[in-house]
Amino acid sequence: MSSLRVAVLLGSVRRDRVGGRAATLVVRELERRGHHVDLVDPLELQLPLLDRMYKEHPKGEAPEPLEMLADIYRKADGFLVVSGEYNHGIPPALKNLLDHFLEEYFWRPSGIVCYSAGGFGGVRAAMQLRMTLAELGMSSVPSILPIPRIGQAIDENGVAIEPIVDRSANRFLDEFLWYANALKDARASGSPY
Fold it and tell me: Each residue of 28-50: pLDDT tens digit?
């Protein structure tokens, strides 16, 4: 398996967010496997609410955070999206982050890492996110990585406390990376349009 470039999109900007734990866990494992990772944090980017998509700005005139993201996304072989569950849906900051782009996502797989403080692990948000990702042109791989009770499952440093988290993460990443490699090869031969 060749070295890949993966963009990990963190979905929350809340003050007390814990999604960074899950993001750190998958970033560390991807890097351990020899892949290049770009962590995209909407809290650091401070993107405005969507008024204009990146492609709607005159060439070279998009705000700097959008130009930076466009560069990261064009180089990415796949996207891992880390999402909490807010009122059975995805966080508004994540939807805003995703909606600024379109073509930059095409023909690349996405993987969903979801979490919650409760027992469902964010799966209700993941189902909504799966529809959005497909519409954006980066359909999600069949498996997801749900992390229930994230505060007890992963520590502040992104280290799994419960062994099942590491086992599940490794199986999930094996699948995601298989799709990312397959689509990387397919993109090298061209795309349907």
Answer: 999 999 999 999 999 999 999 99
